[in-house]
């Protein structure tokens, strides 16, 4: 253990792998006081045995942007520090051996163009010219990203460490952190043997050991250790230093050149987890025994692709533990459980590709208290209650690993650890043909099969017309013409209570919540830059109580955001009451008739207008009926005590039978909301977009003149042109399929990409939403004056643009 330890440091980083060293380097460059503690030597853990492929393209624009920062850093780092990084920009090749994979590659190329990357689509012959030692007879095509490459993980780590020291960071090896100092939910320091080191902020970059250390602060880190094997061959004829990295997903293998030989490994469908509760300390520079029986199926696939492997020797097999997460994305950002404790871990075997950008983003997050841009895809708050169970995490993570090279079907659901959280209606809906999806552990009906006609209650995935298309059309039509019932029990529901509840929410909410009891407010919650952090509804239940409803997947995020932003001097508390009530959403032109029949209450437009709430009684249960809609029709959210949910459901169906009431799922809801132009956080909305950019300025309380979080930034932005504006697009061509991430062209120039897309069954066409961008500024006239095309898998389709909803722009159906 190092005896040269300070008693305090502004920021402490635990872990000297590539992520920790990158974070230290970037923090030091920002002028921050940094102390990095590594219990062994730098590059310990999984860094030293990583394969070192550096690819950039991901399905998320900002994660792709982050990986691009890695490439830029690795190109320049040697010149700055004098230490080689092993960076080689060889380009990256990805193969397709069947038509579905080829469609996926073409869509990836469109995504790459959307995000500013040049991904080239190649013929089999062109791919073979780049990689002449492979067998290419089965290829349909390939994609090539010229700016991808490879690097030496230990060399990069050493170079980052030298750069960090040069900028003033202290790095101490052989210094183990034994415990964390936490006071009133906030990190205060660490304990190293007999030493106490006080800090303001702590960053845990401990790789496989992060969950154990974080647990000392009550922080859950959902990752699992899985064995990952690759081999290094002797020198091989035809393997040159400039050979591109290659991924052969249909054969589950990746390749890169190393000293004239090949590194090859893969993602087997039957991964082997680490079975003990924790990973021993001595795995810092230790490998597992070779497991040729487990690796042999991958080796057979590799030999079929590269026959010359049969004639070369194997220098070494690497069998190391890597940390993987339940959704395949890494974990970056501040923990919701402990203030000022940050996480950088769970890199799913692409830590080398991520490290440069992840270290930059995490450093900025730590330095200023917020991410440099929207990083929801890797935010720790995307997890929830089920992820506190190690068995759940391990099982789901094993599935995510096994699917690493699977075709990424649109709307594909995970199959493992299902049924963890169920609505009281689950069995009833299942018997009626419900096909369930899962979000944050909740089982949610996506669609209902027509069992009487022989439809199977199962998903059939496709890049064109999925198996649920006809079922969604039925449910969509029923909602537009009669009435449907959605089970939305999985909604996250919070109670904000206390003498100062109004004052607290008035500060946090962009819209005015100073409303009478019984009023419901649609509002965003903004960060200090004016970006949208939450998109939800707030219903006033009394002088000192508000009922807050948000999306299932945002339960942890939104609770954390609200709780942290309640001013300390105010008497207001936030309570998660999600499990106490079921939610049935009654939507459609006949919704009022059904609700009146089943409750006997006056629910006329005069008695219960839009954005109002009142208590009604149904089947002996007191139900909070909130007049809202997310589908563009007359509708009510019915919040019901859990124990009464089944009785209320049957009463609604009995009363609704004469009116054509039927069950509907989330996939129909998506089609309906796209037609109506309703936004979704995580798609059209997020921290990078202000209400004005998103077309939601109407939900900002400008007229009151009262201050709220983000108001100053919005006022300053009003003096400048908008850099982007959300617009809707319709593509009528029958061959078009919009899924999101397709490129938007205006007068032939790329101006953005779609955040979401799908088929509108009333409009009868594909609908997508995306931001139209222009450095010189964007306004409504600019958007509407454009001639647009949408690029789908390399083909451009003419598109019509609109800033108004494609269905019922006058809101006649909603307010009827």
Question: What's the structural blueprint in terms of helices and strands?
Answer:
Elements: E1 8-14, H1 18-29, E2 34-37, E3 53-54, H2 61-81, E4 92-96, H3 99-114, E5 120-122, H4 124-130, E6 141-145, E7 149-150, H5 153-166, E8 170-172, E9 179-183, E10 186-192, E11 195-204, H6 210-214, E12 224-233, E13 245-248, E14 253-258, E15 261-266, H7 292-305, E16 314-324, E17 331-334, E18 341-345, H8 351-368, H9 390-402, H10 426-431, E19 434-439, E20 442-448, H11 469-481, E21 483-487, E22 492-497, H12 501-508, E23 520-526, E24 532-542, E25 545-550, H13 555-565, E26 573-576, E27 581-587, H14 591-599, E28 613-618, E29 621-626, E30 635-641, H15 645-656, E31 661-664, H16 666-676, H17 711-717, E32 722-731, E33 743-746, E34 749-760, E35 765-778, H18 780-784, E36 788-792, E37 795-802, H19 812-815
Parallel strand pairs: 1-2, 1-11, 2-8, 4-13, 11-18, 21-31
Antiparallel strand pairs: 3-7, 4-6, 5-6, 9-10, 10-11, 12-15, 12-16, 13-14, 14-15, 17-18, 19-20, 21-27, 22-25, 22-26, 23-24, 24-25, 27-30, 28-29, 29-30, 32-35, 32-37, 33-34, 33-36, 34-35, 36-37
């Amino acid at each position: 253990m190092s005896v040269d330890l300070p008693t305090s440091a502004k920021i402490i980083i635990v872990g000297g792998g590539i992520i920790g060293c990158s974070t230290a380097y970037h923090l030091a460059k920002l002028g921050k006081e940094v102390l990095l503690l590594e219990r062994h030597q730098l590059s310990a853990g999984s860094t030293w045995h990583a394969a070192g492929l550096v690819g950039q393209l991901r399905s998320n624009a900002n994660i792709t942007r982050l990986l691009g920062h890695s490439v830029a850093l690795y190109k320049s780092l040697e010149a700055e520090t004098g230490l080689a990084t092993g960076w080689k920009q060889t380009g990256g090749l990805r193969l397709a051996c069947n038509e579905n994979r080829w469609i996926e590659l073409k869509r990836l190329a469109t995504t790459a163009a959307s995000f500013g990357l040049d991904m080239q689509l190649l013929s089999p012959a062109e791919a073979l010219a780049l990689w002449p030692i492979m067998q290419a007879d089965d290829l349909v095509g390939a994609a090539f990203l010229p700016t991808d490459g490879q690097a030496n993980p230990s060399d990069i780590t050493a170079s980052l460490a030298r750069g960090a020291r040069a900028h003033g960071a202290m790095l101490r090896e052989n210094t183990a952190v034994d415990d964390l100092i936490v006071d009133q939910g906030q990190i205060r320091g660490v304990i190293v043997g007999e030493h106490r080191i006080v800090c303001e902020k702590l960053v845990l970059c401990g790789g496989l050991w992060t969950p154990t250390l974080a647990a000392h602060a009550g922080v859950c880190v959902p990752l699992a250790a899985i064995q990952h094997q690759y081999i290094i061959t002797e020198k091989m004829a035809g393997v040159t230093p400039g050979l591109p990295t290659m991924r052969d997903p249909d054969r589950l293998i990746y390749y890169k050149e190393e000293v004239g030989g090949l590194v090859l490994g893969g993602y087997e469908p039957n991964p082997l987890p680490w079975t003990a509760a924790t990973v021993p300390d001595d795995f810092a520079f230790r490998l597992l025994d070779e497991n040729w029986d487990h690796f042999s199926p991958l080796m057979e696939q590799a030999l079929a692709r590269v026959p010359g492997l049969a004639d070369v020797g194997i220098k070494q097999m690497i069998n190391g533990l890597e940390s993987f997460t339940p959704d395949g994305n890494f974990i970056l950002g501040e923990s919701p459980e402990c203030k000022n404790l940050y996480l950088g871990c769970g890199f799913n075997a692409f830590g080398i590709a991520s490290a440069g950008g992840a270290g930059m983003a995490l450093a900025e997050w730590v330095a200023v208290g917020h991410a440099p841009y929207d990083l929801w895809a890797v935010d720790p708050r995307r997890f929830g209650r089920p992820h506190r169970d190690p068995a759940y995490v391990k099982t789901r993570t094993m599935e995510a690993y096994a699917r690493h090279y699977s075709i990424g079907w649109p709307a594909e659901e995970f199959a493992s650890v299902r049924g963890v959280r169920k609505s009281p209606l689950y069995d009833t809906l299942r018997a009626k043909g419900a096909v369930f999806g899962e979000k944050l552990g909740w089982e949610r009906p996506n669609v209902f099969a027509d069992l009487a006609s022989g439809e199977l209650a199962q998903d059939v995935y496709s890049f064109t017309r999925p198996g649920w298309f006809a079922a969604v059309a039925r449910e969509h039509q029923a909602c537009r013409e009669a009435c449907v019932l959605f089970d939305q029990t999985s909604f996250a529901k919070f109670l904000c209570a206390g003498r100062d509840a109004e004052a607290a929410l008035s500060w946090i909410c962009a819209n005015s919540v100073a409303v009478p009891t019984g009023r419901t407010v649609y509002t965003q919650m903004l960060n200090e830059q004016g970006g949208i952090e939450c998109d939800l509804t707030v219903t006033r239940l009394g002088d000192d109580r508000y009922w807050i409803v948000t999306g299932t997947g945002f339960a942890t995020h939104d609770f954390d955001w609200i709780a942290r932003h309640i001013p300390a001097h105010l008497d207001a508390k936030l309570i998660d009451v999600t499990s106490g009530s079921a939610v049935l959403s009654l939507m459609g032109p006949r919704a009022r008739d059904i609700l009146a029949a089943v409750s006997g209450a006056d629910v006329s437009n005069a008695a219960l207008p839009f954005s109002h709430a009142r208590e009604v009684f149904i089947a002996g249960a007191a139900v909070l009926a909130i007049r809202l809609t997310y589908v563009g029709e007359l509708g009510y959210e019915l919040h019901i005590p859990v124990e009464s949910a089944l009785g209320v459901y049957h009463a609604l169906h009995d009363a609704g039978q004469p009116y054509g009431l039927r069950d509907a799922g989330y996939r129909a809801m998506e089609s309906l909301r796209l037609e109506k132009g309703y936004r979704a956080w995580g798609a059209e909305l997020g921290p990078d977009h202000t209400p004005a950019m998103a077309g939601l300025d109407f939900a900002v309380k400008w007229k009151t003149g009262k201050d709220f979080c983000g108001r100053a930034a919005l006022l300053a932005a009003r003096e400048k042109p908008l850099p982007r504006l959300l617009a809707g697009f319709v593509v009528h061509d029958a061959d078009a399929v919009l899924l999101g991430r397709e490129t938007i062209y205006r007068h032939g120039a790329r101006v953005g990409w779609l955040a979401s897309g799908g088929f509108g069954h009333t409009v009868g066409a594909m609908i997508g939403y995306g931001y139209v961008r222009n450095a010189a500024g964007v306004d409504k006239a600019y958007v509407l004056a454009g001639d647009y095309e949408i690029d789908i898998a390399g083909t451009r389709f003419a598109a019509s643009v609109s800033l108004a909803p494609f269905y019922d722009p006058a809101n006649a159906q909603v307010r009827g």
